[in-house]
Design a protein that fits this description.
With 185 residues, the protein is of the alpha/beta class. It is built from six helices and nine strands. The protein has a single domain (5-181), classed as Alpha-Beta Complex (DHBP synthase). It has a nine-stranded mixed beta sheet with strand order 7-1-2-6-3-5-4-8-9. The mean pLDDT is 92. InterPro entries: DHBP_synth_RibB-like_a/b_dom, Sua5-like_dom, TC-AMP_synthase, TC-AMP_synthase_SUA5.
């Protein structure tokens, strides 16, 4: 299922207005919002019951969308590959502490999943991306699970399909290449 242009425009406007919602990523549903809107970020964290100091992933349609968030290491290029990899890189100055978990790094990913690319482009920005689940529970893989788990906590759900990944993305440290979280959890 491909999201309609009307749905994308509507959801893009909700994101720009501070709305939070859910969307299918490469492997699980993600909760998302404007990554510079501190109130929206705080609502996502509260909805998950997540600690403030964990930080959140920012997912984008392109590396260019991530430029305002990252102090790129010399010569480092992010590419969307056959499997999703989230990179921990030096954060740009002035980002919301809830986004970075108060660290000098930020976790970012360029997606190759068409619905997320379309959503980022419709919103005109990258998005917060954290698995759609309450902390300690399995991530949602179906929109009905989001409705059941979050009831009225999300303002939108992007009507589209998950990618072929099973579970969350791998997370790697850009400076060393060290795997911080293997793919799938």
């Amino acid at each position: 299922m491909k999201p309609s242009p009307i749905a994308l425009r509507r959801i893009g406007a909700l994101i720009q207005a501070g709305g939070i919602g859910a969307y299918p990523t490469e492997g699980v549903y993600g909760l998302g919002c404007d990554p510079l809107n501190e109130q929206a970020i705080a609502r996502v964290i509260a909805l998950k019951g997540r600690a403030d100091d964990k930080g959140l992933i920012v997912i984008a349609a392109s590396q260019r969308q991530l430029d305002p968030f990252v102090a790129w290491p010399e010569g480092f290029t992010l590419q969307a590959g056959p499997r999703p990899v989230t990179w921990v890189v030096p954060a740009a100055e002035g980002l919301p502490p809830l986004l970075t978990g108060g660290r000098e790094t930020i976790a970012v990913r360029v997606t190759n999943h068409p619905p997320v690319i379309a959503l980022c482009n419709a919103a005109g920005m990258p998005l917060v991306s954290t698995s759609a689940n309450r902390s300690g529970r399995p991530a949602c893989r179906y929109d009905w699970q989001i409705r059941k788990q979050f009831r009225h906590g999300v303002e939108w759900i992007l009507p589209a399909k998950l990618g072929n990944q099973r579970g969350p993305s791998e997370i790697r440290e850009a400076a060393t290449g060290r795997v911080l979280r293997p793919a799938g959890g």
